[in-house]
Amino acid sequence: MEKWLGPDSKFYKWGTLLADLIILTVLWLICSLPIITMGAATTALYYVTTRQLSNREGYVSRDFFRSFRKNFFQATLVEIILGIISVALFINILMLDRSTVLGSILFPIQFVILYELTIVTIYIYPILSRFEFKTVQLFKTAFFMANRHLMTTITCFVLFVAAILVVFRFYILIFVCAGFYAILTSLMFMHLFRKYIPEMDMDSFEDMR
Questions:
Q1: CA-CA distance, 34 to 162, in Å (whole number)?
Q2: How many folded domains does the chain comprise?
C-alpha cells in the first residue's frame, strides 16, 4: 500500500498535481472575475506553472499572489492595451463597407491584425511571468516569439480553442481547465525560454526579477 500511496509514488505525485491545478484554477477564476484583473491573474497562473516546471519548491497560493501583486500594474496595462485594440478591430470589421475598393482592401488587413493580436496575447503573459521587460519591449518580444515559433503558437492556439469547447461541453471542468491549459503550454514556453536564457531555471535568475 505504501508503494502506491507513499510520497514517492506516481499516484501521490499525480494526485498532488491535480490538487494543485484545481487550486490554481480556482484562484485564477476568482481573481479574473473583475475582468480588469484577468491579465494579472493569468500572469500569476503562468508564474506558478513555470516555477513547477523548474522544479522549485513553493506553495501554489503563496506563489500565485506573489506574482499577482508584483505584476498587477503592468499586466493590467497590457490587458487594457489589448482590450482597446480588440474593440477597435471588431468595430472596424463590423463597420467597413466591403463593397468599396478601400473597404475590400482594409477588410482582410483587419483579420491579419486580429491574428497577430491573438498570438501576441498567447505569449505576452507567460513572458511577463518570467521576465522583467518594459511594456513596449514586452510587446515586441511577444510579437517576435509568436511569429518565430509558429508550431508552438499554433499548438497553443489549438489547445486554447479545445479548452473552451471542453468547458462548454462539460461545465464542471471549468475548475481544472485553466490549470491544465497553463501547465501544458508552459511545457512549450519553458522549452523556448531556455533556448534564449539557459540559466533561467537557476535560483539566481529568479532572484533577479
A1: 24
A2: 1
